Each structure stands twice: as structure tokens, then as C-alpha cells.
Here is the input.
Amino acid sequence: MTDPRARRVGAPSALAPGVGGEDSRALKVRAVGYLSRREYSRVELRGKLQPHAGNADDLERVLDALERERWLSDERFARALVHRKATRQGAARIVSDLRRHGLPEERLDAVKAELMASEFDRARAVWGKKFGNRPQDAREYGRQYRFLAARGFSADSVRRVLG
Here is the structure.
């Protein structure tokens, strides 16, 4: 009787190169599978692949190859995230999300400049959808102010929207 925990014939052994992980080809296939579903930043994809990688060098080579072949792009990831969130959130919150995903500061500055150009209009649209009426007293003003501020809109934009 065979042990059910025994490795299958042809399966990589524990002593094969890339101990404890997949070879580069399998790692790349896994990465392309992730990227075919949605965009990932390099840092985020590295985190998803890390448990499956044999060593850090293999992982970095796979990530470099994916960038060369244009499967992986931090710029495309940033554009997708901004497109997804810009109608509901302010520049500060979106930039914070991008920073959390490991995008370089130069890219963050460019994105923030683009978002700030339309910040007032986006804040007014979010406010109009939720409230629509100017605050009648200080309590209501504070409530509406906190609502917009929590979504990452700048204090200047919020004050302009609320009047």
C-alpha cells in the first residue's frame, strides 16, 4: 500500500532547484494568471508570488521579465486605480492607496497634480449625490464636512462645496 502523502511521479522533489517553491516558468504562469484578472503593482504582485517563489532572485527575474513584456506596469496599475476611485474619492485618499501599493513618489506627484485639477468638481458631485442641500446649521455643516474629508477631499475643496 502506498503512502498518500508520497509525491507523485514527475512532481518536483523537495531537493529540486528552487527548494520550497516553483520554478521560474511556473511562477511566471501564475503571475500572468493574476495579471489577466486585474492590474497589480510590482510590490503587490511580489507579495502574492512570494509564498510560491523558490528564492528572491527567481522572483525578481520573473517580475523583470513581466515588465519587459509589458504584462506588468505600475503606470497602468495607477491609471486603473485612479479610474476606479476618482468618482468617489479625493486626491489624498487615492494617493494614499497608491503609496500603500508601493508606487514611486515621482508617479504619485504626477497623479496628485492630475487629480487636484478636478478635485472641486468631483467633491461637488459626491456631495450632491449624498446631500444635495446646503447645511442649515453648524451640526449639519460638520457632518457634511466630515463626510467629504473622510473620502480624501482637500479642506479647500470641501469649504468651497459647502459654501
